[in-house]
Amino acid sequence: SSTAFTTSSLLLNVSLRSTVLVNFVACQLFALLMAVWFRIYLHPSKTSPFIRHVVATLLGVAMFILHFHQKSAQNLCWYCFIVTLGYLILCQITRVYVFDYGMYSADFTGPMMVITQKITSMAFEIHDGKMEGQLTPSQKYLAISRMPSLLEYLSYNCNFMGILAGPTCSYNDYMAFMEGTSYQRRHQEKANGKENGKAKQAEPSPKRAVVSKLCTCAISLTTYLSLYRLLPVDYAIDEHFVNTTPFYLQVVYLYLAMLALRPKYYFVWTLADAINNAAGFGFNGYDADGSPRWDLISNLRILDIEFATSFKLFLDNWNMQTAQWLKRVCYERCPVNPTAATFLLSAMWHGVYPGYYLTFVTGIGMTMAARAVRHNIRPYFLVSDSHKRVYDVITWASTQVAICYTVVPFVLLAVGPSLKFYSSWYFCLHLLCLLVVLVLPVKSRRRQARAKEDAAQDEQRDHSSTDNNCNRKDKST
Questions:
Q1: Residue 58 domain-assigned?
Q2: Cα gap 333→343, rounded to integer Å
Q3: 268 falls within a domain
Q4: Residue 13 falls in the annotated catalytic set
Q5: Fewest CB within a 10 Å sphere: which of 73, 371, 384, 477?
Q6: Where are the stretches annotated Disordered (predicted)?
Q7: Residue 331 contacts by C-beta under 8 Å, 6 or more apart in sequence?
Q8: Which residues contact 34 (CB under 8 A, 6 or more apart)?
Q9: Angle between helix 247-278 and 2-41 (nearest 10)
C-alpha cells in the first residue's frame, strides 16, 4: 500500500508539474501575441500613454489571475525595502512550509519576486531624485524626478509583458517606452555612425530579435525536456554512485547534470525578453556594424555563461537584471562588507529553503577566492597569447566546477542532501577557498577605488601646486 501511495504521489507530482508548465507557456504565448498587438495598434503615435498604461495593467492583472487562479521621505526607501522584502519572505514561508515543500506548483511568489525588485528599485530611484549630489552616473540616470501617478505605478509593476517572469527594468526606461521616447533617446546615445542617415528617423523593427529569441526558446525547452530526467542532480548523492564511481567521473556527471538543468532558465528568461521586444520594449541602440540591439532588459547571455572564465563573469551574465537590482539597492549602498550583504540579500529574495543560504554562503567564499587568484596569479599568464589561452582553459574548467559545486544546495533545497553532497566531496572546494583567501589576500574593490581616487586627487594637487608655482614665477618675472 505504501508503494502504491508513493507511486500515486509521484504521478500526481508529475501531473502538477506538466499542468503548471503548460499553463505558464500558454499564458506567455498569449502575452507574446498581445505584445505584437500592443506595438502595432497601441503605438505611441496612435494612442496616448494613458491608454497604454491602462491596457498594459489590465492585461497584466488578467494574466496573473488566469495563471494563479488556483492560489490566488529620505529613509522612506529603506522602510519600503524592509516591508516589501519582509512581505515576500512571509509569503515564501507560507508557500514552502504550509502548501508544498519541495514541489513546484502555481508559485504565486514568482511574480511577487519581480514586483519586489520593481517596488524597491523605484523607492531608491525616487530617493535619488531628491538628492542633489553624491550620486553615481548610473544613479543620476535612473533617478526619478517626478512622483509617479497611481496608474503609472500599477502599469510599471503589473503590466502584462512582465507580470509572470519579468524581467525587471528601471522606471525611467519603462516610461520612455510607454511615452514613445525610448527610440529617440537611444538613437542619440548609441547610433554608432547612423545618426546622420535615415536610420535615425526610422523606428527599428524587433521582428528579427523576436524570431531569434523564440528559436532559442524552442532549442532550450527541447534540450531541457530531453535531458533533465536522464541527468538528475540528486543522483550525484546516490550512495551506490558515490561509492562505485571514480571522483573525476563524479565531477563530469555533475557538470553534465547542471548543463542539462540550465536550459530551463534559458527558456523562461528568453521568452520573457521576446515578449517585451515584441511590444517594442528593449531597444538599446546599435552595434558597431549598425544593427539594432534589443538587449536593454535581457536577463542572460548564454554563450558568455557557458564559456565564462571566472566566477564573476558567470554571475555577471546570469540573471542580469536581478544582479543589477542587487548592485543598485545593496552593493552600492551597503557601508560594511557589501559582497557578503549582497549574497545574503540574494538568498533572502530567492526564498526560505536552507539550500539557498548554503549556496550563497558558499558563493561568498568562491567570489573572494576567485578575486584573489585573479589579482595574484593572472598577471603571470599575460606575458604571451599562448600563456593567456592556457590560463583561459584552466579558469574555464575551474569556473564550471566551482559553479556546479556551489549551486547543488540551490537545487537540492534541503540541508541533509546538501551536506551529504559536500561530504562526498570532503568539502574540498570550501577548504581550498579558505586556503586561497588566507594565502593570497587582496584588497576589496572599494579600497581599490578609494586608492585610485586618492591617487587621482594627489596627482591633481601636484598639478595644481605646479601650476601655482609656474604662475608665481611668471608674475615675478
A1: yes
A2: 14
A3: no
A4: no
A5: 477
A6: 450-477
A7: 338, 339, 341, 342
A8: 59, 160, 279
A9: 40
Percentage of residues in the chain having pLDDT higher than 70: 80
Tell me if 41 is assigned to some domain. Answer: yes
348: closest CA among 3, 76, 52, 84?
A: 84
Number of domains in the chain: 1
Active-site choice (53, 319, 337, 463):
319
Query: pLDDT of 215-267, one tens digit each?
Result: 999 999 999 999 988 999 999 999 999 999 999 999 999 999 999 999 999 99
- Tally: H helices and E strands in the chain: 20, 0
Q: Which domain holds residue 122?
A: 9-180
In a domain, 201, yes or no: no
Tell me how far apart the terminal alpha carbons of the chain are, to the nearest angstrom. Answer: 107
| pLDDT tens, position by position, 303-317 | 999 999 988 899 999
**Active-site residue identified among 350, 375, 463, 471:** 350
Rounded to 5°, angle at Cα 346 from 441 and 77: 110
The whole-angstrom distance between residue 15's C-alpha and the CA centroid of its chain comes to 30
* 319 is a catalytic site residue: yes
What pTM value is reported for the model?
Answer: 0.78
Residue 291 DSSP label: P
